[in-house]
Design goal:
This protein has about 100 residues and is an alpha/beta fold. The chain contains 4 helices and 3 strands; from the N terminus they run βαβαβαα. α1 links the parallel β1 and β2 (about 25-30). It binds NADP nicotinamide-adenine-dinucleotide phosphate (NAP).
Length: about 100
């Protein structure tokens, strides 16, 4: 089974469609379900499910468009730089590529 973050987004939905079409088992980990910005929560989920690997398609892209990243710098930095670091550290701790 493959773990997917950001499955509701543009890139994440494309992954979900691909996996579904090819019959590849996956779990779309939604933020509402497991707040994976907390590393200990992501580590616990990874240790429980033992996915083969994780795909991170989560990120802050700005609404209504990318120009919003200039205004919302904190969200942009967190979603695109801090969060990937948290995910990488959680994966390393759980031994998940
Ligand atoms: N779209 C492209 O053409 C493209 C090209 C190259 C790279 N990328 C990169 O790929 C990643 C995803 O892009 P996308 O276009 O699929 O984005 P998107 O449609 O805006 O989807 C972003 C996803 O990230 C989740 N998410 C998790 N933590 C978040 C946070 N702190 N802030 C905002 N969203 C958060 C959202 O979850 P919720 O549903 O819970 O809000 C949502 O599912 C981004 O890093 C982007 O820069 C995209």
């Amino acid at each position: 089974m493959i773990y997917l973050l950001g499955g509701s987004g543009y890139v994440g939905q494309a992954y979900q469609e691909l996996f579904t079409r090819r019959g590849i088992p996956f779990r779309n980990l939604r933020r509402a379900e497991v707040d994976y910005s907390h590393p200990e929560k992501l580590v616990a989920a990874l240790r429980a499910d033992r996915p083969k690997f994780l795909i991170n398609a989560a990120g802050y892209t700005g609404k209504p468009n990318v120009d919003a990243c200039e205004l919302h710098k904190t969200e942009c930095l967190f979603g695109n730089a801090v969060l990937p670091g948290i995910v990488a550290e959680a994966c390393a701790a759980a031994g998940v590529p």
